[in-house]
Amino acid sequence: MSKSKIQESKNRKIKVLVSKVGLDGHERGAKVVCNLLKEAGMEVVYLGLYQMPKDVIDAAIDEDADVIGPSFLSGEHLVYTPLIVEEMKKAGLDDVLLVVGGVIPPEDIPTLKKMGVDEVFSAGSLTERIVTYIRNNVRR
Amino acid sequence: MKVAEKVEPVIKENEVDWDKCLAAYYEKPKSSLTWSGLDVKEVYTPEDLPPEKYKDVGDPGQYPFTRGIHRNMFRGRYWTRREVIGMGSPQDTHDRSKVLVDEGGSGLNTIADVPYEMGLDADHPWAENEVGLTGVCITNMYDMETMTADIPLDKVSWSLITASTVAAVTMAQYAAVAKKRGYDLKKLRGTVQNDPVHFRYCGFRPACPLDLSVKMGADVMEFCTKEMPLWYYTTINLYDLREQGVTAPQEVAFGFLIARLYIDEMIHRGHKVDDFAQRFAFYVSCHIDIFEEVSKIRAARRIWAKLMKEHYGTQKLSSQQFRFAVHTAGCSLVPQQPLNNIVRIAYQALAAVLGGVQSLHCCSYDEPVCLPTENGHTQALRTQQILAYETGVTNVADPLGGSYYIEKLTDKLEKEIYKVMEEVENMGGMAEAIRSEWLDRIFEKEALSRQKELDNRDKILVGVNMFTTEQETTTPLGVQRIAKASVKKQIEMVKKLKKERNQTLWKEKILALKAAAERRENVITYMIEATEAGATTGEMMGAVRLAFGYPYDPIEIIEAPF
Question: What's the average model confidence in pLDDT over B47-65?
């Protein structure tokens, strides 16, 4: 990263892109997280329902997002996460944080992390934990 | 006597924070508000329940049914113990259904998956990855035959959970299979959820445009009134509304206002309310505040009775009875310390039964982790059975009736429900609240408040904001996975069916359905015939959608094949 880019990233807000993926329509949690991250001073873009992995990554590039947060509540996390990671790699987004939220069996958390997910926030996560994690781990 | 060997204590005295123990000893509850934020007094006395008040309460089985719709309640019959089942292929769902009946379940309850509710066939490019993940996908008559195979449809009460506009297809598929197997439709018992209006708030907006939702909902009601008189043709879903994060009064108010959209449509079509209202049923949430939930149910019964009598002028008592199933609150469960969920569910089930429930689904403890495992499912059924057979709650109708507190809280809930209903009516009614997205904004606002209550510890959730422990790495009874092979086989079968069916007959029937929808006729009979001719869920919904000016495919990536 160039010096000027580092300076720029220090001054601007952390930008988070939240999205649902596939057909899963449970968006109560995703919307709540969006609102809370905004209140915590981050810039948030919510893509909404019915997005495919490529849509999410295209939007992340357009928006120059620092964090990508897909939300899965229908057991589809193991289907779509590898596709999202693949799209991120193709686009060279290795400095973008990938955090997954939703209904995720604890057994799948190591699997998701092995795929390339930085952190998983299951149902019942308090806001502070999510905000602190993002602030401490954002890579740009 | 042998003296026990001295064992070193695992936790040494000086490792425990005894001040914390002392503080806990004197600790008082931080809040005395109900879950929905209603203020309640320290104690209730006879002053809160003057004798003349009882007229408005009434005995169980007596108008306005505050105390229940039957005088003898569970002495007449236990509530139906049915657990929601839907996973993998129709065969997988069929197999799990049998397991639960074998374990003592008294009714079947199958739920559609996301592609099916959206009206997509299993071989739709967007469906292929998601078939069977959250329910069962019935694409055609063959799938329905597989799910219902060798189950005596005249001996079971089957609750078919398809809520969206696709409920019409589900009803047609079930009726087609029942007819083929020689059953008299007039004798079949069961329920189809059929509440498309509410389902737009569950992520199915493309499948549930408002006009089509009212049309399809009413078509099913009209068809069943005539052809399947023992069938409950709708279960107005208050539960899903509550799961958005709203309060108990909002849950009932919004649900009733949605119910009125269908009733008004049926009246508009020329039906008398007394001819169809007795087959209305409701799906209610039971959250964790036991007394508030019981009072909510009692208030709902009274409001519904009055609405049906005073507003709609019904004469029959059966038209004024609020019949309901309870689904314990999925959103109250958390993956942290998951076994605690069993206790939460048990309290919620107790509230349902104290409220006089007709049919109950207990969530399984693993609900916030995955679909229920077989053990999780059976355990949830056991929670119901312990309640039914061990605790004595079935002895007396409305055991909390006459409690100074419960009667007062019932009044309070009633007032709050009316307040919300009036607010919506003043803005032009429910259709307007939906169109203007007022309801969307309410849901978003309330959901945010619920999370803040947890963040700020205004509400306590054990394992989340109090008594927390390290994150679990495993789920106690394992994780339910969907068998990819059986789903793949199902998708292959759909493709095969589409190639091998009698194309001429199929086309004739699907075009007849489309033409009927264009003429704004009731489409259910046409859907039964199209199903028999091999038409699929996506095709039938697509035909009706086209007739109403909507894209064939709600996801808008495939074209109509006709």
Answer: 93
**In three state form, how does the secondary structure of B388-401 look?**
HHCCCCCCCCCCCC
Q: What pTM value is reported for the model? A: 0.95
Fold held by B60-455: TIM Barrel (3.20.20)
Task: List the single residue in B126, B204, B465 with the smallest CB-CB distance to A22.
Answer: B126
Per-residue pLDDT band for B1 (boundaries 50, 70, 90) equals low
Query: Does A26 fall in a domain?
Result: yes
Strand partners of residue B327: B285, B361
Burial of A2 (0-12, 13-18, 19+ CB in 10 A): exposed
**How is residue B329 written in tokens?**
């609150």
Q: Is residue A8 a part of any domain in this protein?
A: no
Sign, Cα dihedral of B295, B297, B300, B304: negative
Residue A23, in any domain of the structure: yes
Which DSSP category does B356 fall into? T
Residue with tokens 């909002």: B250
Q: What is the pLDDT of residue B273?
A: 98
Q: What is the ipTM of this complex?
A: 0.93
**Does A63 fall in a domain?**
yes
Give the domain ranges of chain B: 60-455, 486-547
Q: Using CB atoms and an 8 Å cut-off, which of residues 49-108 of chain A contact chain B? A: 49-50, 74-76, 79-80, 103-108
Number of domains comprising chain A: 1
> For residue B56, what pLDDT is reported?
87
State residue B280's pLDDT score. Answer: 95
CATH of the domain at A107: 3.40.50.280
Contact A21, A80 (CB under 8 A): yes
Q: Does A126 touch chain B (CB under 8 A)?
A: yes
- pLDDT digit string (tens) for B417-469? 999 999 999 999 999 999 999 999 999 999 999 999 999 999 999 999 999 99
Domain ranges, residue A65: 13-137
Class of residue B151 by CB neighbours under 10 A (exposed 0-12, middle 13-18, buried 19+):
middle
Question: Are the beta carbons of A23 and B370 separated by less than 8 Å?
Answer: no
